[in-house]
Design goal:
Pfam families: DUF6265. This is DUF6265 domain-containing protein. InterPro entries: DUF6265. Keywords: Signal. The protein has 155 residues and is an alpha+beta fold. It is 17% helix and 54% strand. It contains two helices and ten strands, in the order H-H-E-E-E-E-E-E-E-E-E-E. A ten-stranded antiparallel barrel has the order 1-2-3-4-5-6-7-8-9-10. A hairpin with a 2-residue loop joins strand 8 and strand 9. The chain is globular.
Length: 155
């Protein structure tokens, strides 16, 4: 009888300690990202293709999303994406088929209508920018002179 109580007590203490390690600035910045939730249909795709990103809250300190590109009725590309607080920082985590492990990009800039995440050690992209303009979203991935821009509209 004591063992389950002790285990529950330790879990509660550890959870409390972890929660205390997240600064108010980090949680406030994470809350600023709530505008991203929902479905965003890509508007600059080639003929015969469709694409979208979908984001949803997955917990107090995590948003989960995915990006899908379709060619006709076939899935051409799937990306699992997350925004998560870890070690008192906000991270954009991209999980794509061509990488063995998810790639972490640290949030370096946040405003009321956008954010930038960076990972200088990654080959491409090194930087991810999201910018909101009304019901439109521009996502740009870049490294040096190479950049790709994706235009979205809220569904």
């Amino acid at each position: 009888m004591k063992l389950p109580f002790i285990t529950l007590f330790l879990v509660a203490i550890i959870t409390g300690i972890q929660a205390q390690n997240i600064s108010k600035e980090t949680t406030s910045n994470f809350e600023k990202l709530s505008w991203l939730t929902g479905t965003w249909n890509r508007t600059n795709v080639k003929p015969g293709r469709t694409a979208h990103e979908r984001w949803e809250m997955a917990g107090k300190y995590e948003m989960k999303g995915y990006g899908i590109s379709m060619k006709e009725k076939d899935t051409a590309f799937v990306e699992k994406i997350r925004l998560v607080i870890k070690d008192d920082h906000i991270w954009y985590v991209a999980d794509v088929p061509e990488n063995k492990e998810p790639v972490y990009f640290k949030l370096t800039t946040i405003t009321a209508d956008g954010f930038t995440c960076e990972n200088p050690a990654h080959d491409f992209p090194k930087r991810i920018d999201y910018k909101l303009n009304g019901n439109k979203l521009t996502a740009t991935i870049s490294a040096g002179d190479k950049a790709m821009t994706y235009l979205f509209e809220r569904k």
